[in-house]
Amino acid sequence: MKAAYYTRPGPARDVLQFGEVDTPQPRPGELRVRLQWSGVNPSDVKSRLGLRSASMPFPRVVPHSDGMGVVDAVGDGVEPARIGQRVWTWNAAWGRADGTAAQWVCLPQQQAVALPDAVPGEVGACLGIPALTALHAVLLGGGVAGKTVLVAGGAGAVGHYAVQMAGQLGAARVIASASTESKARLAREAGADDVVMYRDEPLAARVAELTGGRGVDRVIELDIGVNGAADLELLRSGGECVVYGSSQPQVQLPFFPLIAKNLQLHCFIVYHLAPADRERALGTLGRMLERGVLRHNIAARLPLQDIAAAHEMVESGSAVGNVVLAVD
After folding, report:
1. In the CATH scheme, what is the homologous superfamily, with its name and number, of domain 2-126+296-326?
2. How far, CA to CA in Å, does 11 sit from each of 19, 59, 61, 97, 232?
3. pLDDT digit string (tens) for 156-191?
4. Which pLDDT tens digit goes with each residue over 77-95?
5. Which CATH class is domain 130-271?
């Protein structure tokens, strides 16, 4: 089969290759997906660069955890009725050598989730990391019903979903931060009640103005390394900061505001969700997809052989939204 892969870490154009590899066969408990779309995420870029580990976890890595395709074979213990089912994948490349940047992938049956017929295939390649990250950030800790929520980066791959999901799940008010007018427009179209242009106006002061000095109940934060200190100012007493990313490996936060305001700090990575949390998120996301209530912001669609260009778009931050690769 055709696949994109790398055998050493490094810059995209130096290490990513495109060629023939063996077609996989499903083992017991697995199914095989003939892929149509593969999603590129920042974690894929970091792994390929070797930022998590200087050594290769496997001799050859086919990247990408997110994908969409059709089940075409099953192993022992998997219902044959799943053959022909449209599915989207999660954690395909997490702790595994073979992800979705290929014509086929085999993975445990629970990691291929039915995709409603009305949902475009490329959307399925945006769900495993961006949508589930956003949804868990909204659902955890009792959810957001009746709360005022600030979504940092409301036009980004995760933030765009988080703005919508917070509104769908009962938030009283959703505020988003954005850096440009075009990004602010995306956040508003997703349902943000207010948008703060953080490059042009003081974020904490503007949020205080919008909330009558009370602050927000929850911040959904994509980069605590940059925004952590500001988040403590934005939150009301007893508020919660939900963190799913940081551009800095070491983070320092002033302790007194944390304890004086009784603030809660929740950090998570979507790859390691507890089984109950994942089941809750999968069920909620499935219902949202069935009802067609979500907007999907796909910034670029490229062929699989252009994987290096796709990685560069994600790495540079030039893509506002999700980047997906057409496999066939």
Report:
1. Medium-chain alcohol dehydrogenases, catalytic domain (3.90.180.10)
2. 18, 17, 15, 19, 36
3. 999 999 999 999 999 999 999 999 999 999 999 999
4. 999 999 999 999 999 999 9
5. alpha beta
